[in-house]
Design brief:
The chain is α+β, with helices and mostly antiparallel strands and 149 residues long. It has a single domain, classed as Nucleoside Triphosphate Pyrophosphohydrolase. The chain contains two helices and eight strands, in the order E-E-E-E-H-E-E-E-E-H. Strands 1, 2, 3, 4, 5, 6, 7 and 8 form an eight-stranded mixed sheet that branches. A hairpin with a 5-residue loop joins strand 6 and strand 7.
Length: 149
């Protein structure tokens, strides 16, 4: 199905945000329970809605997925996720802007999009099956937070 609102076989790339949320030196890593990135460890996040700032989208998506309150601090890079089907047609296309963020309050309560969540030290990502470039984004986010003080 191709339509302006479909994220499968889209007519344009979709903008998404994610958050490398730090608390006491650890970053929140989640495992996706469904597509896209089903089964992979990654950062919480999702699509930016019309009229929403990037920071508002980060706060909303993190709240929806984990019930946590966070403060986005700075962009930590970007990622592009383009998936093609067997015929070579673009099945999904996301431009993802990951933010460095600080945990403000709350306990983790996952929604149906996530199967698991862990607070990990950044060097503990090495043994996980993650979305592409996750360790680099987490490292960049840690640097942005340290620079922000």
């Amino acid at each position: 199905m191709t339509s302006e609102t479909s994220r499968t076989y889209p007519t344009r790339p979709y903008l998404a945000v994610s958050a490398a949320i730090f608390r006491d030196g650890r970053v929140l890593i989640v495992r996706r329970a469904r597509r896209p990135a089903h089964g992979l460890y990654t950062l919480p996040g999702g699509g930016v809605e019309l009229g929403e700032t990037l920071e508002e989208a980060v706060i909303r998506e993190v709240r929806e997925e984990t019930a946590l309150e966070v403060k986005p601090v700075a962009l930590a890079g970007y990622r592009q996720a383009i998936a093609r089907d067997a015929k070579g047609d673009v099945e999904r296309h996301f431009v993802i802007l990951p933010f460095a963020a600080r945990w403000i309050s709350g306990d983790i309560s996952l929604n149906e999009e996530l199967a698991e969540a862990q607070w990990l030290l950044p060097n503990q990502l090495a043994g996980l099956t993650t979305t592409e470039g996750l360790a680099q984004i987490v490292a960049a986010a840690a640097d942005r937070l340290n620079a922000a003080g």
